[in-house]
Amino acid sequence: MFWDQASETLARPTLEHLQIKLLQETLHRVRERVPFYRQRLAELNLQPADIRTLAEVRRLPFTTSDDLRAIYPDGLLAVDRAEAVRLHTSSGTTGKPKAIFFSRADVDNAAELIARSLVSAGITAADVFQNMMSYGLFTGGLVMHYGAEKVGCLVIPAGPGTSERQLMLMQDFRTTAVHILPSYALYFASYLEQKGLRPRQDLTVRKAFVGAEPHTEETRRRIEQIFGCDVYNSYGLTEMNGPGVACECEYKAGMHLWEDNFLLEIINPVTNEPLPDGQTGELVLTTLRREAMPILRYRTRDITSVVPEPCRCGRTHRRLARFVGRADDMLIIRGVNIFPQQVERVLMSFPQVGRNYLIIVEGLDDLTIKVELTPAAFDGQLEHLEALQQQIIEKLRAEIWIRPKVDLVPAGSLPVGEGKAKRVVDKRSL
Ligand code: ADP
Ligand code: ZN
Predict the structure, then answer these.
(1) Cis before residue 73, ω within 30 degrees of 0?
(2) Residue 257 to residue 316: CA distance in whole angstroms
(3) Residue 97's pLDDT is what?
(4) What pLDDT was estimated at residue 94?
(5) Of 149, 287, 333, 426, which is the most exposed, with the fewest CB atoms less than 10 Å away?
(6) CA 345 to ligand 2 centroid distance, Å
(7) pTM for this structure?
(8) Where are the domains of the chain?
(9) What CA–CA distance (Å, rounded) separates 328 from 158?
């Protein structure tokens, strides 16, 4: 199923031609209207017409999150303030907010991309779509909402409310699709378990869009098993509208990035050299259709790769592989680079492991991982727990090359915040 079949299946040469045309328009726009970019282009002695091929894109300047903070609140605005109709800010997981403005056309276009994404995963107007993300400055609420409405779903703007209320809405309105943080999906599952409910039988959820934070294939599988639904990975960032940048189609094998709206590059984050499809590096994105706030070559700090083969669904827009993590979350422990997702992958492969974990680094690079077990696994038999602990330590050591300390703790004993999960406490930097 397609929302906009013509755009989603453009032949590659046509798509690339369109990208260059849109990029040149964007360059004209920022050169005329945004002093920040006018100056950067002048420093590099670049004219919009100089960029005639995709290979030449690398001559353009990068934009970093520090740049966005430095020009806060509105230094990149390319329209009059009166033409901007919406403001969002990043959720601030990694520091001060970055403010992003939308024109009316930008708001509509963001909804259009969500509609494409949802329909590519089989959502229809008949779906009841419960959006369990925070409404407000965070894009996961409003941006997703208007996209799902555009498809024609009955949208329930549940927001991040209590699990009790989420459950009530799901049962009363027979919710069929949800947009949810993966960490919250696991938490919600244990809430249902405590209430003695069986999600597969007692709920009608058949599709879940999970994103906004890194998670592993194991976590996807676990959510699918618990709820008896299909889980689709969905990627976005406030700087690029929020959700709707890339999403998995029905085949659940990488996320189609809407390349007629965003120019995609993967680079080596140290040398800044471009990397070919299939190789892992930092994702760099350029907006191609944004009016209010175009951004050139944004360094997302997100680590991923492009899936080299075309997708069976017929969409020609390339897919991003599941994210390795954020460059900012990478831990260096005793000289070894570790991403929290490597730890998660190991933990979630144990059925006894519950919904939450916390990675703690302290002292001279001492790594401790606190792991919640399911209520059933915490059976009070010391020898069972010790054996499990050893198994987890060994499997972690094989994955991250370091032998961590592992603390097994009962379900519900680790802190849960509202919003994105905090997986790492690095006391070395405090
Ligand atoms: P913040 O950077 O403050 O968290 P955003 O709410 O804009 O602000 O979050 C965007 C970031 O969330 C992305 O840059 C990425 O690191 C992460 N993210 C979003 N979706 C996914 C996903 N599906 N997989 C991995 N990481 C994701
Ligand atoms: Zn596909």
Answers:
(1) yes
(2) 10
(3) 86
(4) 60
(5) 426
(6) 24
(7) 0.95
(8) 1-327, 330-429
(9) 31
141-168: pLDDT as tens digits: 999 999 999 999 999 999 998 999 999 9
Does the domain at 330-429 match CATH 3.30.300.30? Answer given as yes
User: Does the pLDDT value for residue 92 go beyond 70?
Assistant: no
Here the tokens at position 371 are 């792991």
Residues listed for the chain: 430
Instruction: Look up the CATH architecture of domain 1-327.
Output: 3-Layer(aba) Sandwich (3.40)
Closest CA relative to residue 4, chosen from 315, 307, 264, 247: 315
**Amino acid 381: pLDDT:** 85
Residue 93, CB-side half-sphere exposure with 13 Å CA sphere: 18
The rounded distance, in Å, linking the Cα atoms of 50 and 57 is: 9
- What is the Å distance from ligand 2's center to 256 Cα? 7
Q: Is the pLDDT reported for residue 237 higher than 70?
A: yes
On the 0-12 / 13-18 / 19+ scale of CB atoms within 10 A, 400 is buried
**Test site for ligand 1: of 239, 295, 323, 339, most ligand atoms within 8 A of the Cβ:** 323
- Chain-wide mean pLDDT for the chain? 95
Predicted confidence (pLDDT) at residue 430 exceeds the cutoff of 70: no
123 pLDDT above the threshold of 80: yes
212: closest CA among 186, 187, 246, 188?
Answer: 246
207 near 122, Cβ under 8 Å?
yes
Report the C-alpha gap between 371 and 408 in whole angstroms: 5
Ligand 1 binding pocket, CB closer than 6 Å:
90-94, 138, 211-214, 233-238, 300, 302, 323, 326
